[in-house]
Specification:
Elements: E1 6-8, E2 18-20, E3 23-24, H1 30-42, H2 58-62, H3 70-79, E4 84-95, E5 100-109, E6 112-121
Antiparallel strand pairs: 1-2, 2-3, 4-5, 5-6
Length: 122
């Protein structure tokens, strides 16, 4: 058995945790920017007790009847992430049957162009 095992946690779970040799391994660079965008999108505004303004206003502005400014709110969260220089592409969809919101994005970061998808269960 190899001692150099990398455990990748399935997407949608604690995807910010990576272990090498049974030790937490911090990520940086482009991977960190993507991780931060996904974390910011998956955190509901008001969820974190130390800063009620942190996160995405899912229940305040987006996942409500007749949302106004939903796209702008999501774009602001992405564009406001550390390391993001510009939002270059964006799409948002909500599946009312499953309650799943899907955000696809492309950004220009300090590490070059990046693309990703975040799924949030509303």
């Amino acid at each position: 058995m190899s001692n150099n095992v990398v455990l990748a946690v399935p997407p949608g779970y604690a995807e910010d945790l990576v272990y090498i040799n049974n030790q937490p391994y911090p990520i940086d660079g482009a991977d960190q920017v993507l991780q931060q965008i996904r974390k910011n999108l998956k955190t509901f505004q008001g969820e974190w007790f130390l800063d009620a303004t942190f996160g995405t206003p899912w229940t305040q502005q987006i996942l409500i009847k007749n949302p106004v400014g939903a796209d702008a709110a999501i774009k602001a969260v992405i564009a406001g992430t550390d390391g993001v220089l510009a939002l270059t592409a964006f799409s948002y969809s909500f599946n009312s049957v499953t309650g799943m919101a899907t955000v696809s994005f492309s950004v220009q970061s300090q590490f070059g162009p990046l693309s990703g998808v975040a799924e949030v269960l509303g």
